């Protein structure tokens, strides 16, 4: 199984859909937030492979047939760091190690992580992200108030 994650495609998808919604996917904005759904779409654009393992995989067929990892912050994290099958996988890294197409999750001190964003740029020591829920493209990570941040370096398997 070789690495098949195309960071450029993930970032291009994020740019295309940062301020709108792809009609192929349910908008979870009013159902708890759309951030992990959006990042999952970006990851899928970059790897073109879903993991159809029941319960613990990572896939989206429609709004009712999907895994929690497609739309939930903590579930997406758990899937990415433990995935040994097809689809994206990640390892937690320091902020200095991230690349475009990687993922950052945010949370306030003493609370669970509650937001997921895609890293779309690195420039002059700043990390820039795209996100849904509070829709953003090229937003400086330093503009987010959440103090807790975990960075996930993404790869993929066919």
What's this model, at a glance?
With 158 residues, this protein is α+β, with helices and mostly antiparallel strands. Helices cover 24% and strands 30% of the residues.
Looking at this protein, list some descriptive labels.
about 25% helix; globular; two-stranded antiparallel ribbon; six-stranded antiparallel sheet; about 160 residues; alpha+beta
N-to-C terminal Cα separation, in Å? 6 Å
Number of DSSP-assigned strands: 8
Ranges where pLDDT stays below 50 over 5 or more residues in a row are none
What is the mean pLDDT?
Answer: 94
- Helix fraction bin: 10-25%
Please state the CA-atom Rg, rounded to the nearest Å. Answer: 14 Å
Largest sheet: 6 strands, antiparallel
The strands making up the biggest β-sheet line up spatially as: 3-8-4-5-6-7
Total count of helical runs of at least 4 residues: 4
String of helices and strands: HHEEHHEEEEEE
Coarse shape: globular
| Fraction in beta strands | 25-35%
